[in-house]
Amino acid sequence: MKLNRGTKQNHNMKEKILLASIDLMRKNGINNTSLADIAREVNISKGTLYYHYSSKDDIIFDIADNHLNIISKALLDCLGKVNSDFTTEEFVVIILKNISDIEGTGRIHMYLLCEAIIGNEALRERIGVKYIEWRSAVENQIASIIDNKSDARAASFLLMSIVDGLVVQGILKAEKIPYSEIARFLIDYSNKIKTTSK
User: Fold this and answer.
1) CA distance 62 to 65
2) Within 13 Å of residue 107, how many CA atoms lie on the same side as its CB?
3) 3-class secondary structure for 160-188?
4) What is the rounded CA–CA span in Å between residue 85 and residue 88?
5) Which of 22, 24, 20, 14 is nearest to 49 (CA)?
6) DSSP tag of 105
7) What band does 20 get if pLDDT is binned at 50, 70 and 90?
8) How far is CA 74 from CA 20, 52, 57, 134, 192, in A?
9) Directed axis angle between helix 5-28 and helix 35-42, to 10°?
10) What is the 8-class DSSP label of residue 150?
């Protein structure tokens, strides 16, 4: 389908508004970014902004959808690199490193999660659906490479929780995250529990 000139201009303006909104929210947080700030950043009137987005929530939803799609693509690309020849440790390292290290999205991810947690119910539902998709994809991939398939579900929940924690640590930049050591520990600990429970 070919866009007419007006539709292209509208699309370009929406994209400018979204990019400016992401930059401002990344710097100032969601609550400290107003529609007036966004309009000023894009160099448009508030009326023009309202033509494209009727509320700040509409902008947040578009940012969230865009952000969640970026992470989904990164997760699927990451899982696509994994094959049955990989050891469990190699798989864990790939997930931890690649998903927690998605460039430029960590801070906005945390802001969106906070917004969802403190009361934006529609955003919480959108993010919740994506988390279920991500965790299910991880579970399916884990099930394809480990012997005990019944452990895949629990492992997928644990891995997703660890990734969220690593995103927070990455944002804080307190210290370099030792992905290989974490993966080795998780595998060794898991094996140790299996051995002692027999």
Assistant:
1) 5
2) 14
3) HHHHHHHHHHHHHCCCCCCHHHHHHHHHH
4) 9
5) 14
6) T
7) very high
8) 23, 29, 25, 10, 32
9) 120
10) G
**Rounded Cα–Cα distance for residues 29 and 34 (Å):** 10
Instruction: Decide: 20 and 13 in contact? Cβ < 8 Å.
Output: no
Distance CA 72, CA 123 (A): 16
How far apart CA 160 and CA 166 sit, in angstroms, is 10
Q: Mean pLDDT: which of 33-37, 57-61, 78-82, 179-183 is highest?
A: 33-37
- Give the N- to C-terminal CA distance of the chain in Å, as an integer: 62
Find the mean pLDDT for residues 44-52: 93
Half-sphere exposure of 112 (CA within 13 A, CB side): 26
| Contact (CB, 8 A) for 105 and 70 | yes
| Helix extents (H) in the chain | 5-28, 35-42, 46-52, 56-81, 88-100, 106-117, 121-145, 152-172, 179-196
In this structure, the number of other CB atoms found within 10 A of the CB of residue 30 comes to 21
The token duo for 106 is 């960590």
* Contact criterion met (CB below 8 Å) for 163 and 99: yes
Name the more confident of 63 and 94.
Answer: 63
Task: Enter the tokens of residue 182.
Answer: 């974490």
Judge whether 100 and 163 are in contact, CB under 8 Å. Answer: yes
Tokens standing for residue 71? 């992470």
